[in-house]
Amino acid sequence: MKAFQNKNLKQTYNVIIFISSSLYFSCSSSQNSGEIAVQEIAGESPYTLIVEAESLHDISDKARLDEASKGKSVVLSKGEWLAVDANFEEAGRYRIEVTGTPVGSDTSVVWMEDYYDNPDGRTYDVTGKMTNSPSFDIQSYTVEGTPFNQGLHKMKVYVSGGTVDIDNVIFTLMKPHKASPEILTQTYEGNEWELVWSDEFDGTEIDQSKWTFDFGDWGWGNNELQYYTDNRSENARIEDGALVIEARKGDLGNEWTSARLTTRGNVAFLYGKIEFKALVPRERGNWAAGWTLGNTYVDEKDWPYCGEIDILESVGYEVDDETGDGIAHATVHTPAYYFKIGNQISNTKDVSKIAAEWHTYAVEWTPSEINILVDDVPYYLYDKTANEKEWPFNIPQNIILNLAMGGGWGGAQGLDPTVTSQKFLIDYVRVYQKK
C-alpha cells in the first residue's frame, strides 16, 4: 500500500462493494436504500456503506468463485475481469482500494477501467497498474486521486499479472469536485495586448486563491509513476521569484512524488493570450508541461470533449545532456483529433538551451484559431472549426502546470537510474486580452 500524504483531505463519502456468490458488484447512496440493502458499519463514518449484491453481473469466462471462501470472493487470473457498477452520490477525487489475497508466486497486478460501455470504444484506465508481491495475506491495491463524476459508472476490475482472490472494492471521496467559479473572457480584437491576470511568483508561498493542487497516484491516464502531493513544499514552492515544481525519487514510500497545479476551482479563461516563462528539466524520464484543460472536465469521460491545449510539452530524453538543447511540443486534443486514436495534430520546434535558459511559451486563442509560440515565434496553428468535435474551444479552459515522471511518453526510453530529483521552473504565468 502506498504511503498516503494527503491525510488532511476531508473524507466525506465511502462506498464499499462486496462480492457475493452471485458475482454482482453494486454501490449506492442511502437515497437508493429502498432498492438494495444498505447497512451502516458501527463506529465508522456514516458515509461508509455496505451494499449487498443481488443479481448476476458480467464476469470473464475463466474467472471463478473461490469455494474456500463460500462464494464471497472471486479468483481472477491474468487476463480476467469482473464488472462493477458504482453509483456515486458526489463528484470528486476518490481513493480506490481493491482488497484481495495474491495467489501463487507471481507478482500480482490489478487495474480498473471506468465507463467500459462508452460508445467511443475508449479504454478509461482510472488506476494505472497496482502491484503487490506474492503473499498469503490479504492485500490492498490502492491509488488516490481518481476523478469520478456523480452518477452510475460501469467499471471492470482486471488482473493483468498473477492471480488474486478479490474480496471487495472500496471508494472513498477525498475531495469534492469544484469547477472554476470565475470565468475571464478576453477580447481578441485590437492592436495591443493588455494584461488581465497573472501570477509573478514573487511572494513566499503559492497563492491558493489562484492555484489548486491536483493530487494522487492513479497514473493520470498515462501510467505515470509520480504521486502528486497536495501543497507540499518539497514538491512545489516559491524560490527566488519562481515557482519550483520538483519531482523526488523514492519519496514518502512512492516511486516518485511531484506536483500538479491548476487554476480549476478558482478561475478559467476563454480566449486571449496565455503565456508563461519556464526552464524545463533535462534528464531522461521527465515529462514537463504547461497546458489547459476545459472547465467542464470532471472525470475521464469528459476528455477530450472539454478540449485540451498543450502550450508546451517537453520530455527529458529529447534534451541534449551537454548543451541543454531540446524540443518544444505543441498540440491540441479534440473529440475529432486526439492521441489515443493516433491522429492528434501537433508540431514541434527545436529550442536552443531549452533546459539551460529561460524561454517563453504562449498560446493566442480566438473563436476561430489557436496559435502557439516559443519566444514570440509562432510555430503551430489549429483552425479546424467545422463542428463541435473539431472545435470544443468555446469552453473556458483552466491552466495546468505539472512535472510527471515516466508514463507512456516521458518513460518511453526509460528513466535515468542515477537521477533522484528533477525541477521544472516557472518565472510567471500571464493572461492578456487585445485592446
Describe this structure in words.
The structure is a single chain. By secondary structure, this protein is mainly beta. It folds into 2 domains: 164 residues, Jelly Rolls; 253 residues, Sandwich (Jelly Rolls). The chain contains 1 helix and 32 strands. The strands form 5 sheets. Strands 15, 17, 18, 19, 20, 23, 28, 29, 30 and 32 form a 10-stranded mixed beta sheet that branches. Strands 1, 2, 3, 4, 5, 7, 11 and 13 form an 8-stranded mixed beta sheet that branches. It is globular. It starts with 12 loop residues before the first strand and ends with a strand. The N terminus is likely disordered.
In short:
The protein is mostly beta strands and 435 residues long.
What keyword list fits this structure?
disordered N terminus, Jelly Rolls, single chain, 435 residues, eight-stranded mixed beta sheet, 2 domains, ten-stranded mixed beta sheet, mainly beta, 1 helix, 32 strands
Main β-sheet description = 10 strands, mixed
Tell me how many strands there are. 32
Tally of individual helices: 1
CATH architecture of the largest domain: Sandwich
Number of domains: 2
Give the N-to-C terminal Cα separation.
54 Å
Low-confidence stretches: 1-14, 18-56, 66-70
Radius of gyration: 23 Å
Structural class: mainly beta
Helix content: under 10%
**Overall pLDDT, averaged?**
86
**Strand fraction band?**
over 45%
Query: Which topology of the largest domain does CATH recognise?
Result: Jelly Rolls
The level-1 CATH class of the largest domain: Mainly Beta
Give the CA-based shape.
Answer: globular
